[in-house]
Amino acid sequence: MGTSIEKIECLTLPVSAADLRDLSLLLIDAVESNAAVSFLAPLSLEAAQAFWRKTTTDPHPAAVFLVARDVEGIAGSALIQPAWAPNQPHRAEVVKVLVHRRCRQRGIATRLMQAIEEAARSGGFSLLTLDAKAGGNAERLYRKLGWIHVGTVPGFAFDTDGKTLHDDVLFYKELTTSR
Description:
The protein is an alpha+beta fold.
């Protein structure tokens, strides 16, 4: 049984060496558990660190990086990446919603999603989008949290084995903003 989450907080940028390592181990754990998170297995620590270093260096000013921490370090993440297009300042994408296997089935993903939605509202976003592997735990979570299913894209990406294609489901959620 995993440890309890002490807090969900905004990640301090630039990330510390310890946080970079924890984020990288979190991503590796997700890949090792066959999560559809854009990477193939095996994912090396160096490749995971390169991803997080690039993602957290010079982000969009309205980007939000949330992490869940337990006594072992970062146990979960959720990010808001604002739309790049000038005609979409109201929209952002939710990405890298990850929970380490040591902490799954404890409501942490739900808490991260609630926190990321509140951060998006506070940041003035009124529309969020995300995608997930069809039939997976993430799809069930997003449906439970009231996200609207837009459609399914067949054969969207490979599973972590690099051989098996899976379908992808697209979701959106409209928010009332606090602006």
